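Task: sequence in, structure out. Protein: Phospholipid-transporting ATPase.
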Amino acid sequence: MGSLLSACGINVKKKKVEEERHLRANDREFNLSFKYANNAIKTSKYNVFTFLPLNLFEQFQRLANAYFVFLLILQLIPQISSLSWFTTVVPLLLVLSITLAKDLSDDITRHKNDNHVNNRKVEVLINGDEKWMNVQVGDIVKLENNEFVTADLLLLSSSEPLNLIYIETAELDGLVSKPVNVNMNLSICYYCVRCEPPNNRLDKFTGTLTMRGETFALDNERILLRGCTLRNTEWCFGLVVFGGPDTKLMQNSGKSVFKRTSIDHLMNVLVMFIFGFLAFMCTILSIGNAIWEYQEGNSFITFLPRADGANASLSAFLTFWSYVIILNTVVPISLYVSVEILRLGNSYFIDWDRKMYHVKSDTPAQARTTTLNEELGQIKYIFSDKTGTLTQNIMTFNRCSINGKSYGLKSLRLKVDFSWNPLADPKFCFHDHKLVEVVKSGSPEVQAFFRLLALCHTVMPEEKTEGELFYQAQSPDEGALVTAARNFGFVFRSRTPETISLVEMGVPTTYELLAVLDFNNVRKRMSVIVRSPEGKLTLFCKGADTIIYERLHPSSSKLMEVTTEHLNEYAGEGLRTLALAYKDLDEDEFEKWKERHHEASTSLEDREAKLDTIYEEIEKDLLLLGASAVEDKLQDGVPQTIEQLAKADIKIWVLTGDKQETAENIGYSCNMLRGSARGACVNPYSVFRNARKKMSPESGDEPPIEKSRLLGKKSQVVEDEKKDMQLELLRTACMCQAVICCRVTPLQKAQVVELVKKHKKAVTLAIGDGANDVSMIKTAHIGVGISGQEGMQAVLSSDFSFAQFRYLQRLLLVHGRWSYLRMCKFLRYFFYKNFTFTFVHFWYGFFCGFSAQTVYDEWFITLYNLVYTALPVIGLSIFDQDVNDRWSFQYPQLYAPGQLNQYFSKMAFARILLHSCYSSLVLFFIPWAAMCDTVRDDGKDIADYQSFALLAQTCLLIAVSVQMGLDTYYWTAVNQFFLWGSLSVYFAVTFTMYSNGMYLIFTSSFPFIGTARNSLNQPNVWLTIFLTTILCILPVVAKRFLFIQLKPTINDKVRQAKAVPPPLPRKFPRRRISTRRSGYAFSHARGYGDLVTSGRFLRIPVKSRPALFPHTDTPVP
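Result:
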């Protein structure tokens, strides 16, 4: 049994937990004894043998499909079935086949992708070229430039000096590139490695390597992970440590949370109700059968003899199951397939939307999932990253304060001409000519300022040709500052682990790099200690102004006051600031400190804490030089987008790792915060309630929504807090129109989203551009990735992706709203037509002695949902729109009904049920009254069952088609073709199946011979059809007319408006609103200080892609 399940892809054995990995280089026999996974990957779900059984097993887990198999079994029992088997088999096979084809296509694509990766070639030291899937743990492989990394490798040797390599990790962790350092000898091919078992920690690796009897420690800096690409390195050799599913990339590619829309959850509830309602109807009819058999049954025994032992109770029991078969159309078997087709069509509209295509980056919008489209029309909360999402993450050096003087005033002056500096960056722009003049005049303070910017950093230079410098910085801030120093005459040219080479005002100068005191989130600063060519020791320090001020010498107090005024001015412009300071060191003092630093850096316990203490000893009594200010420009259209979303009553929360001041300034710049807004800067725990009472003294546990406030939040706000504190945070935040959470980690971003999801009945959306946003994107109902400056990890984890934040308003206000409207219309019409169809059967039961006779022809029952009404409703659900996209932008309030679930809910379903009940009464009793005791024009009797069945089904089809026409706001050629084509097909099929020829060929299957031509040529039949249709739609038309006149919705008002849509929204100029000082915000990652001192360099490849569409970027509509 176990082997059978294994063949079907079901693992029945518990895998032994691996505690430690032990391997030897090039010893396959030894390594295979541990049964480590090979390097083959598998993302496909099926194979040739398992596809059909597993896929059918998955499909029959859907309640509706399993129910129809149960119906098929019932239909095979002659005592129960009054319908032919094909009425159930044909719809079921069609539904299963469509799903099979879709799943097969998806899995074939997955197989192709797997085969493409597994069949890549790599050079293995012992066997030559091997396919990736044949590489084993312990093999030594050779990689060449621009090749993908085969597996998780321990680096042994490379072609670069100092055994460096350069890799691109954008597909792995969101970074552009990463250096890896090795210091081993490939000539020794016997290595024994013991390391941690496979895990998903990208930033951690522990192990030991034994070589020639010596043991060396291994850490993450010597590991090259699968998912990276070798760049700017001719070759390298590596030892395979983890392969295939054990690699950290695949360990991080676990099953994503399956997201389902609120409509999906509601549909599941409604389907369960439908089952109960079906049982209720069948019970009523079976009771009626028992009463009828008891009172009238004996009158028919002569020509309808009963079987032996049959009585009224048995007849009622069998009738119950017979009506379960007949009324099966109330359970929507084709609903799920139709919904998938609808969602797929709306996803293509997002992919094809040229107004969401970004020309500069050649990036179209992409719907990465097809199951969440209508959820886009119900968003209540948006959680956004700041850097790279609201801003461009491209920094420019705009202002600076040096020795109490401010430079860089914005004016209409021409750009500064840097032609005097042959190494200047031609892209750099600055408008204050005074600063250049001061630099050229030899001002020692100004030159010291730019010397600090050129020395105090961890930037890696690359000079491909003489004079063409490219800087690779850990953060765009550092790159902007080093580029500024370069243009003002202090050019950072190159570095080694021991030296930094500059060109100072045209003179080459080399400084000895003695120490790098690296940045972290606690220190919020970095320093370097250098020795000048003259032998002078200097510590240069830059960091957040509040941190630097605490470490200044008292002699800098006056300069600090002036610099603080300049910082406040820069903060009002939304700039990111740094304070710069220095200190001259004594040689003897430094030597003593260096010994203590070495002792702390080699400590095995509390190394970081000891280093921080050592750093504090020397970073004191600093002399202030000034401050720098860089601008992280907002993306195009961000203020307009946020204003539009706010008008749509969407709450926007910004979750960022920046300081409160920086985040607040961006909030003012992008229109989240207004000058008149009252703010509450909240810290945990006891002040939450006080802050809420301050904003709204009358508020209770569930406060009303107030206008925009600011909520600042420190890094420990959610993690490890009690439930009551979380609720208090939520209550306080929900009083705000806009919330800014500061200094949050990636995990805390996800926790904030989860907090809102858990306690608020609202749909959430998270949008970000970096690897640190992935957890938030996966947690929210909808995840949106922006393909920006921080790699593709956010996009790969998202449900929808595009290039600019401004496209979010089109995604929600246009595509989201249309998708929600279309889905709701589809469900309302789908349930209406099916319930109306079924209720006619129900009423007919009271006129046929509850005998489970069908009121329609069997072929009409078979084709009703599959042919006659399928395409019109799909056309309605794919192309319909209440107003066009321009009106959607003009009136963002149109988005509100989706947030309130007004178009489809349990109440709306109840109204559909009542409407269907009324329509079915009309569709049954009007034709019944018209056919009763009626004769043809030639005096012959027309009141037979077949004529009544034809009239009833024709009235039904025309009535539901007219009803669909009334629900259609936007007519296209496709809608017209589907509607009129379906009616034409109905009449064509009816006349064909009721013809003499079909009866003669298949006598038992086509008994309605001549009914169509005998009935449909009578005027009274067409008059009945017309009257029935009018009576069915009259209440709908009357209700809509009265509501438009007396209680019009926003949709009614917009559709009736005569004004032309307004021009494009105006752009909002940057306003100086806040006077708070902006704090410089470093990234969460630790700096590159260790990298610099160990000699590991970093390079970045230059990429380019051809344009997809030859037209200019589309402005925000």
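The first strand starts at residue 21 and ends at 24.
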